[in-house]
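hey m, so remember when u said the tokens were messed up on ur end? i reran from scratch. heres the input so u can diff it against urs
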Amino acid sequence: MHIELVIAKVVTVGLGLLITYQAYKGYRTYGYEPMLYVAIGFLFISVGSVIEGILFDVVGLSIFQAGTIQTAIVAVGMLVILYSLYGQIPQRAKREDGT
């Protein structure tokens, strides 16, 4: 195992989890639902960034199978983030004069 790769993966997961935490914290603080989807999306991407090596080395899947699962997990995360950006159209606040 290459220690440099392990360090890079740990840093990547750490950054992804930090983004996940901050997005979730933003959701809890302000109640802005798209931030919850950003948090969920980054959680999937963070897990997906390391799952290929785990599936290959620990579980014993082929590199093709592990890569396919990793790509699917990352894609789901990106779709969730995309939904947070485009999935919900906020209702415009009504002005005091009713328009």
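this time it looks ok to me. The chain has one domain: 3-86. if urs says something different then somethings off w ur setup not the seq
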